[in-house]
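Repro case for the chain-ordering regression, as requested:
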Amino acid sequence: MKVVLPGISGLLARIVARKLVANGHHVIGIDARPWVGAPEQVTMHVVDIRKRVAEDVFRTERPDAVIHMGTVTHLLESSRDRYRINLGGTRAVFDYCHAYSVRRVVFVGRHTYYGADADSPLYHTEAEPPTGNASFPELADLVAADLYAGSALWRYPELGTVVLRVCYTLGASHHGTLAGFLRGRRVPMVLGFDPLFHFMHEDDAASAIVTAVEGDVRGVFNVSGPPPLPLSVIARAAGRKPLPVPEPMFNFLMGRFGLPKLSKGALAHIKFPIVIDSKPFRTATGYRFAFDAHDAITAFKG
Amino acid sequence: MVGSAAKIEEPMSERDEIEARVSRLEIGFGRFGVDPYGVSKTHLTWFYRALGVFYKYYFRVHAYGTEHVPKRGRAMLIGNHSGGVALDGAMVVASMFFELDPPRLAQGMIEKFLTRLPVASQLTSRLGQFTGLPEHAIRLLEDDRLLMVFPEGARGTAKLYWERTSLVHFGTGFMRLALATKTPIVPFAFIGGGDAIPTVFNAYKLGKLLGAPYLPITPYLLPLPLPVPLSVHYGEAMTFEGTGNEDDRAIEQKVLVVKAAVANLIAIGERTRRGDDPKGHIK
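-- result from build under test --
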């Protein structure tokens, strides 16, 4: 299968690309960032997905499938740039897929779509509307990109669209929101709160994405691995020290004294859990995770 | 060898026994001692140690009819509120842990405001007490857990001393959930809570300042429980036929049957308390 992978230079996308190559697929990467040391079986196009040159890749290569991992999730990026890349890029990907008769497209989104709130149910299902941007306005573009991708299910019924809402990942790449939060020696927590964090090994997340593109399901699916753990348990298991900070001081202290820099809206995510039910994905695809929470944390610790 | 054999025969201390009982809770603690809902073995152990002191020595709680609670599988404990704070829920949770073999974790459906409060939010989730959302109830029941519901809601905890043996309106949500998930209902009566915390007035404005719906005021001001004997009376499990999508009238009729069973257990409990029926027989 010929697979185009926008956003291939991201660390999780690289793992996905290697797995696709190992499974015998022809991978074509599109990213404005280069991937130095990419496997020789991967054809790289260092270009912005919204440019004509990127569309030419679709026109000439006529891929069978696309895995869109080209969204910016770094919350410290200016929101204007993020809107441009995340919404403009997602629209371009679906337009190309429609125009050049791509059979399958997998949009890789995030479980933070559901938002963190004291009143929400512990396990989120795909049937729930997004509340992510209510408590965390900086997430609005990612939520919008997810909903836009989902709209392809009725706009382009001939296109096998899969929207994945993947939980946090941990692993040797030290990449991702949770890895960034756990990077320092001390892990800040809001005093009196210890939410569950849902995460999976990055290899398992990549396998789930490959499973989605190789299968024949369509729809919106949560993707997770082992059950969630309290943040304090994760921090200790990763050899870090939880540092409870009174809520009024929390935002002031972030980014200072070696603590991670966080967007203001992230506070709700440090107080309340976002946990997802991924049973429909497992049932539809037969996907099973290989690494438990301990394995993921150990891989992250190195 | 003789020495070690003698050591094995030593009776377990109460602390070790509680730890052993927590390990026997059939809720799937993972490698980190946490179940898929975040319920923590460590937190449960110290919680039951503290709760055991109140259950066994301070309130000298008697639990009757615990054999009616299924040892395994989904079930719903439905009972009356008694006592201005969560004394009733805590003692029911304790009775399911200390009296059943194997012990069971009774999981309550708590008020939403608790999850917003620091410390309370953390503790309730580590102890398996979740906000009263239908999504939570359905998921826990489908996972064959033991749910504890007080259908009187916050109106029930607001009962004053002279209303302590009465029942207020029962919500119907629990019955729809029981029907939809085919869950047996075990009615229970909690007796003595109103004597332990004799509420004479509920301070709603003061409560709101503290982030709670109200603050119960007793003759000695604070809602601190007095060391009076308490009891829990469990009745026979009840099963109802239906889908949970019936009209309100049909559901309310079924709810009234459960309410009558709880009222009957309260009457039995009060008789037992007065000494008229020391064995707490169900009549």
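Ordering looks correct now. Chain B has one domain: 61-274.
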